[in-house]
Amino acid sequence: MCSDSIIIINDEQSNDICNALNKNHPNILVALAVANQSTKNATTPTQVKARKISANTLSISYVECQGAMCALNSLDVSFSPPIKSADDAVDRIVTDGKIAMEAQCKWLVTEPLPLLIVIVTAALGYTTLVLGEDGLQSAIDSTVPLMGQNIISTIFGSYFFSVVRASFYFAVVAHAAEGAYIAIMLRMRARLGCLACLKWFALICCVGYPLTKKAMMYTNQPKEDKVD
């Protein structure tokens, strides 16, 4: 160990750690790659591999595709504080990876599609549970121009409220089913903690597919091994 308490991981130890990560923890590497990509709108990384590790950084390579064009990229994941022991490196990286894998509530307002779905679902819910059929008709009569009323009447006839109500309950059931599936898969395949899985479930219940797609980056990977 060096005088500044930063350990030195030799090449043999680095290879052993990287092999263990590549074999047993592909979900963790994907989570770290996604969290550390310089471009937040980058596509999902594939063929993610740990290449080299030191007390301060983990070097990762991955393939990123835009349409038919694919490129091999690399990035460094920084450790703060540094890894304390080569023997504990895998545990530390898995812990950091599971933190990176957690769902973020801010996605509901910072990403356009989730925000739009939240607004639309809230509007459908308010109409179904609060306004009711008479309230909806009154709102249409008082706020929608005559041309808009004619379009609604032509398309939906007298069933507009029924369509709104069916759309709301379909969204609730579909999102809940997606959330339950993803929570189970994250627990089984990524071995994410129960609270983290419940958070994914709650957020997917709000918006459905956009967050389901995010979570599938981890559920589509091979099953995680347990960390002893």
Give a written overview of the molecule.
- With 228 residues, the protein is an alpha+beta fold.
- It is built from nine helices and three strands, in the order ααβββααααααα.
- It has helices at 11-24, 26-36, 89-100, 107-110, 112-143, 146-156, 160-189, 194-207, 209-219; strands at 46-53, 57-66, 69-78.
- It has a three-stranded antiparallel sheet.
- Helix 2 packs across helix 3, helix 5 (112-143) runs antiparallel to helix 7 and helix 8 (194-207) packs antiparallel against helix 9.
- It is elongated and about 75 Å long.
Supply the key terms.
228 residues; 3-stranded antiparallel β-sheet
What is the gist of this entry?
Helices cover 61% and strands 12% of the residues.
Helical coverage, percent range:
55-70%
| Total of DSSP H or I helical runs spanning 4+ residues | 9
Summarize the biggest pleated sheet.
3 strands, antiparallel
What is the string of helix and strand elements? HHEEEHHHHHHH
The beta-strand count equals: 3
Multimer state: single chain
Shape: elongated
Strand content: 5-15%
Unreliable spans: none
Mean pLDDT: 87
Strand order of the largest sheet: 1-2-3
Q: How many angstroms separate the termini?
A: 25 Å
Structural classification? alpha+beta
CA-atom Rg in angstroms: 24 Å
List the helices and strands and how they pair.
Blueprint (H helix, E strand, L loop, with lengths): L10 H14 L1 H11 L9 E8 L3 E10 L2 E10 L10 H12 L6 H4 L1 H32 L2 H11 L3 H30 L4 H14 L1 H11 L9
Antiparallel strand pairs: 1-2, 2-3
